[in-house]
Amino acid sequence: MLALFTMAKEKSVYSCQSCGYQSPKWMGKCPDCQGWNTLVEEKKLEILETRTFHEESLSPIPITKLSTQETFRTSTKIKEFDRVLGGGLVEGALVLVGGDPGIGKSTLILQALDAVAKQNIPVLYISGEESLDQTKLRAERLHAGSDSLYLLSETLLEKSIQEIKKLKPKVLAIDSVQTLYTSELDSAPGSIGQVREVVARLLYLAKREKITTFVIGHVTKEGAIAGPRVLEHMVDTVLYFEGDGGKSYRILRAVKNRFGSTNEIGVFEMSERGLEGVENPSELFLSERPLNAPGSVVVASVEGTRPMLVELQALVTPTTLALPRRTTMGVDHNRVSLLVAVLEKRADLALYNHDIYVNVVGGLKMQEPGVDVGIVVSVASSFLNKALDPQSLFLGEVGLTGEIRAINHIEIRAKEAARLGFKHCYLPKSNLKKLKSKIPIEFLGVSTVDELIRLIF
Ligand code: TYD
Ligand code: MG
Fold first, then answer.
1. Centre of ligand 2 from the C-alpha of residue 104, in Å
2. In 58, 204, 298, 334, which residue has its Cα 20 to 30 A from 344's Cα atom?
């Protein structure tokens, strides 16, 4: 209550433009994110606290009195997109889509909206970034066009809301949240206060009018959607587009999802007709793999329910530096340092006077410990200058004493490898004992790094 009273009295608030921290007085340094000169004065709106989403839920109801309805989902007809959303669009859900400029956010949303419109569902795409002509041109490239797909070029929130209420679309897209602004605040479009207020109002609208709403957001230099903490708390789903600048494929990842799993990813390839789903990403990621090259190894990671085979490369070269270089891309730097130390101590490889580079091919990020054995093997392979059998897969987590520890989802990883013609799978001995299914691949259980290195080289 106290907070509400004080808020009502104050006219303005200072918000940090990089993390959303708020203070009643100006400060040179944000105490939350430590940024300098990031606090900007913004007018405080008090209506936020009085908003409710549903008229009926005014008093508490016993949970047993509530009827459950199966959430109805509308398909976007893009299998990979549906998968990330948890099975399609949910009525009234607010989905935030973030990613670097040019990665394909507008393309994907327009494609999805068009597919929905083709099912005779009215949809509205509001662009504050591009003119109607530009959007139309893009739509033509994508072969999109349906009588139920409406376009609007607008940056004023109040005007947009008026049009939304008039048209009553079932699905709405805002491209982008940083270009929309409300006339009730005098701060610039894209500032924390504006972004927060715009999303709050859209959320209110989405819930009350039951409109599935996509909000496209630009990312900051650090890779987060501007106003990250505030926005991520408010919305139902947060999706991020990742990808390697030069490459044509993109990965859509759910960071938060109230209507599905957050582990699922969607893999797309950008073509001249827009984004196309890639159903078998392993083939794509292994397509350029050099065979019989030292340092190259194949590992399998599991994203949600889907296994993905990925090539990992290491390059180990003698150094003249006092402090040898350890460069990693796609895997954790500290993890690699730790594994190199394990190799030195437990497998007697003299790596201390060598530079080591480790890279996940294709710009993918692999965070799970199941790739430890792959890293160890690729570093050893490059160091010894001995290539690995290209039909072998390496799985397992490595501990500090050099033991190889069990990982989960062994069977789906091995199945994917067998499907792609792999013949051997090195895995933790403890996993081997529990393995039941018949997969046409030879399983070789190992219990220490030392044993593994001696076995394969
Ligand atoms: P876009 O969706 O505009 O990215 P964002 O909204 O995230 O900024 O995607 C732009 C890029 O995609 C641009 O470089 C052109 C490319 N592109 C294609 O290769 N094929 C296509 O059919 C379309 C529409 C875009
Ligand atoms: Mg765009």
1. 7
2. 298
* Integer CA distances (angstroms), 81 to 112, 132, 389, 445, in order: 8, 25, 36, 37
273 Cβ closer than 6 Å to some ligand 1 atom:
yes
The closest residue, in CA terms, to atom 15 on ligand 1 is: 102
Provide the CATH topology of domain 284-456.
Ribosomal Protein S5; domain 2 (3.30.230)
Residue 7: predicted pLDDT: 45
Rounded Cα distance, 198 and 180, in Å: 7
Question: Structure pTM?
Answer: 0.80
| CA atoms of 24 and 381, how far apart (whole Å) | 59
Q: What is the C-alpha to C-alpha distance for residues 70 and 57, in angstroms, rounded to an integer? A: 19
Q: Does domain 72-279 have CATH number 3.40.50.300?
A: yes
**Ligand 1 center to 103 CA (angstroms):** 6
Residue 188: what pLDDT?
84
Q: Cα dist. 368→122, 407, 408 in Å?
A: 42, 10, 10
Q: Answer yes or no: is the C-beta of 223 below 6 A from any ligand 1 atom.
A: no
Could you list which residues have their CB under 5 Å from ion ligand 2? 106
